[in-house]
Amino acid sequence: QVRLVESGGGLVQAGGSLRLSCAVSGRTFSSYALGWFRQAPGKEREFVAGISWSGDHIYYGDFVKGRFTISRDRDKTTVYLQMNSLKPEDTAVYYCAADVRNLGGSRMDLSYDYWGQGTQVTVSS
């Protein structure tokens, strides 16, 4: 089992920034790619950003357009999502997820095996 716990969500004005964190625990011998997804009310879950196990591959959803940055600490137990220039349409519950089968990661949520409980991000206009 791999356990993920997100934090750092909250209410921010448009143009502001937030930094989300996702703490990973569980089987320390596990290798996994990590991804961030989001889901707004009434909408499908959307890929935000991903990082491979090696860290060599980092990729973003098309809507990000340079505003967000995914990173990971050296021991690979925490992944971050720095979000700048936030817009009201970024309002959603943000989830981190671990993919233990595809260490390169994926933009597809079905590829991920473990999920956190989510953290709410609300951007006011």
Q: Over the alpha carbons, how many angstroms does the gyration radius reach? A: 13 Å
Instruction: Count every helix, treating DSSP H or I runs of 4 or more residues as helices.
Output: 0
> Main beta sheet, described?
7 strands, mixed
Shape: globular
Question: How many β strands by DSSP?
Answer: 11
Percentage beta strand? over 45%
The chain-level structural class is mainly beta
Q: What number is the mean pLDDT?
A: 94
Summarize the amount of helix as a percent range.
under 10%
Low-confidence stretches: none
**H/E element sequence:** EEEEEEEEEEE
Taking the alpha carbons of the first and last residues, their distance comes to 40 Å
Structure summary:
The protein has 125 residues and is mostly beta strands. The protein has strands at 2-7, 10-13, 18-26, 33-39, 46-51, 58-60, 68-72, 78-83, 92-99, 114-115, 119-124. The mean pLDDT is 94.
Commentary on this structure:
It is a single chain. By secondary structure, the protein is mainly β. Helices cover 0% and strands 50% of the residues. The protein has no helices and 11 strands.
Element layout with pairings:
Elements: E1 2-7, E2 10-13, E3 18-26, E4 33-39, E5 46-51, E6 58-60, E7 68-72, E8 78-83, E9 92-99, E10 114-115, E11 119-124
Parallel strand pairs: 2-11
Antiparallel strand pairs: 1-3, 3-8, 4-5, 4-9, 5-6, 7-8, 9-10, 9-11
